[in-house]
Backbone:
């Protein structure tokens, strides 16, 4: 019995793109959807009201690893789960912590039972197992949780990638068994997605996807992207499994991507994406606009009375000039991060809205071509 | 002809407290009023919408010194003035830069014509004169501007304090003459307040206030407070001039104070105050509540599901727990500063609302006594 149901409501005949409705305990979400990243149970600089009411974010991603270390899943459970803890009314997806264990923690040891690692905060030793990570995410009350996976760096040998992928599949099975046992008597609906790995080897990705089909889960994630590989390889990795993963289930490409890449993933059958870029780049002074990138510190914006993006209707663009944002950035003001993040997250949500709209209207192929030529142009100019 | 008119609408028979209406080009303000500090044309962490619409701030203070150095008054003028630059719909008061020149800039030299100083940002040499500071604030378009003053540190000798006060009076006259000439043909109404100085010597403060009366300005500021003196001395400094400054004009005590001090200043005839404490203390983890101070990092708040202040109706208190705020503080999250500042500024505004309410109802003396006993109790407990 599916925990989180999914229905396709429009399809693009020329690509794999589709619009769907993902029904979660915290609302029905139109896909393709972009999930802002709330690592420590906060999207840096934005209030939950900004996100839910102003920007209209239907689902957030939070990081299992970070919240496990601080404040701890037991505290979050005690305080009523992650939604209540952070006062978030809409859906939450949590990752498995695999990516963070492999990217953030110094010492780590992978064993068949799980992964031993040291906290990046204080060096304390911890172990994640496929089962414990399900328990942690159930304590959070995540609407959609991920299985523990190994996320290999790039590049790795085919042999290493295969052994790692096979372990990820074994872990996924164990996680799924444990998850089904744990939720058997639970009144709350949660979904668990396994993660396709296999580094940048299409044959391994196909093998992995086929093996995961047996688990009959409510959706599938594609992991191991954005680990340093050239961008075309990320798209190829997604393409490798597009015919294998069941079209009736949502697919989530983890950790992608740049604005111009969003329609590319959608064209390859992806329904869900998350990325720190809109928020992190905002804080670093990089603003995404419908006309290309704005590097706000540049002197050319010193007297610029216009909004960050003349085509944007976010709170920032409706009320503040580039000159004011540049002034705040120069002064290292908190309000700079608040306003810049607000705009960048809105930009990502707007792109996803445009994409869904184009699919519904049957014009997605034109949209994709147009997005490609704008991206190429922007690349050439480098900046607005 | 007054630029900014003021009318008293209620008075406390037992103290000097009164409720008034200050009519500015950007709205009529009920006094006594607290002005949050927006040093660099932003109250750190809060959007202008949070301030104007949610919290209901009718007037902000911005710092002449900081904005003169960056982005510069000419740029602000070019972009339509400070209100437009920072997208602020309500009134703005700017200080004279005197306090900052004396507290922030390293090298400085006081001469009869003005003060030479070096920027704390890059060491560049600048000069402020009584006239130039009027011009700078006219470029900002401040509703209420301050004259250049010398703000001596504490303690200084009576002789130094007297010479310095006399120079401040001479500067105030020059500033006022220049201001009247500059605004003679201006359609916009702006007010200029001179500043009472005299260190902690009541005789000098009285002499200063008497000398300033000749200028017939729209209001008076009391400066040289919060420069390191014991708190009772600040109140004495204000008391020294309460019978000299005309009761028909608003009086502004610069840079005060702690929550418990607000009614004390009001009882001494003060109508306007500003202070960085609500915003700075918020960022540092100190939250003001109706029940005393909350130091959010303390372990006792780890599992505390309650709001920062159960009697507060700010966005933070209505939506987030102490446990969540503590988590954000521990994680050095921007959202911590945003939510904490929002609460503390709201707390100050609420205190001022209570004070005005009590004066109107004729219960201000009881309010003051009650506030004193709560403050004494809180002092004894040190924390909620």
Residues:
């Amino acid at each position: 019995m599916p925990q989180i149901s999914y229905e396709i409501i429009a399809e693009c005949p020329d690509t794999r793109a589709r619009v769907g409705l993902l029904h979660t305990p915290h609302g029905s979400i139109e896909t393709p959807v972009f999930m802002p990243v709330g690592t420590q149970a906060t999207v840096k600089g934005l209030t939950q009201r900004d996100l839910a009411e102003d920007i209209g974010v239907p689902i957030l991603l939070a990081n299992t690893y970070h919240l496990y270390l601080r404040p701890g899943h037991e505290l979050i459970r005690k305080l009523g789960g992650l939604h209540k803890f952070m006062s978030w009314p809409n859906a939450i997806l949590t990752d498995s912590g695999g990516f963070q264990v492999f990217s953030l923690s110094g010492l780590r040891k992978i064993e068949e039972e799980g992964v031993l690692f040291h906290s990046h905060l204080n060096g304390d030793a911890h172990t994640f197992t496929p089962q414990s990570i399900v328990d942690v995410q159930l304590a959070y009350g995540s609407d959609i949780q991920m299985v523990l996976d190994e996320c290999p760096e790039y590049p790795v040998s085919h042999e290493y990638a295969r052994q790692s992928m096979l372990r990820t599949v074994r872990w996924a099975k164990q996680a799924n068994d444990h998850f089904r046992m744990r939720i058997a008597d639970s009144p709350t609906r949660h979904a668990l997605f396994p993660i396709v790995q296999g580094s940048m080897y299409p044959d391994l990705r196909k093998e992995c996807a086929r093996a995961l089909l047996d688990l009959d889960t409510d959706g599938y994630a594609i992991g191991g992207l954005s680990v340093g590989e050239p961008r075309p390889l990320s798209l190829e990795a997604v393409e490798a499994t597009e015919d294998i993963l069941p079209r009736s289930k949502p697919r989530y490409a983890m950790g992608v991507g740049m604005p111009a890449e969003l329609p590319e993933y959608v064209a390859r059958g992806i329904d869900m994406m998350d990325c720190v870029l809109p928020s992190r780049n905002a804080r670093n002074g990089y603003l995404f606009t419908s006309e290309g990138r704005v590097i706000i510190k540049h002197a050319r914006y010193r007297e610029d009375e216009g909004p960050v993006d003349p085509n944007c209707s976010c709170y920032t663009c409706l009320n503040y000039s580039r000159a004011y944002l540049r002034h705040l950035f120069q002064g290292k003001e908190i309000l700079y991060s608040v306003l810049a993040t607000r705009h960048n997250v809105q930009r990502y949500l707007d792109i996803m809205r445009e994409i869904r709209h184009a699919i519904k209207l049957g014009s997605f192929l034109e949209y994709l071509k147009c997005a490609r030529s704008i991206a190429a142009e922007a690349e050439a100019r480098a900046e607005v």
User: Anything to note?
Assistant: Chain A touches chain B at residues 40-42, 44-49, 70-71, 75, 78-80, 85-87, 302-303, 305, 315, 319-321, 323-324, 326-328, 330-331, 333-335, 337-339 (CB under 8 Å).
